[in-house]
Amino acid sequence: MLDPVRYEWRGPFHNQEVNTLHAEAFEHRLFDDDWNDRLSRLSLGWVTARDDAGLVGFVNIIWDGLGHAFVEDTIVAVRVRRQGVGVGLIDAARESSAAAGCEWLHVDFEDHLKSFYFDACGFRSTNAGLIKLR
Ligand SMILES: CC(C)(COP(=O)(O)OP(=O)(O)OC[C@H]1O[C@@H](n2cnc3c(N)ncnc32)[C@H](O)[C@@H]1OP(=O)(O)O)[C@@H](O)C(=O)NCCC(=O)NCCS
Question: What does pTM read for this prediction?
Answer without folding.
Answer: 0.97
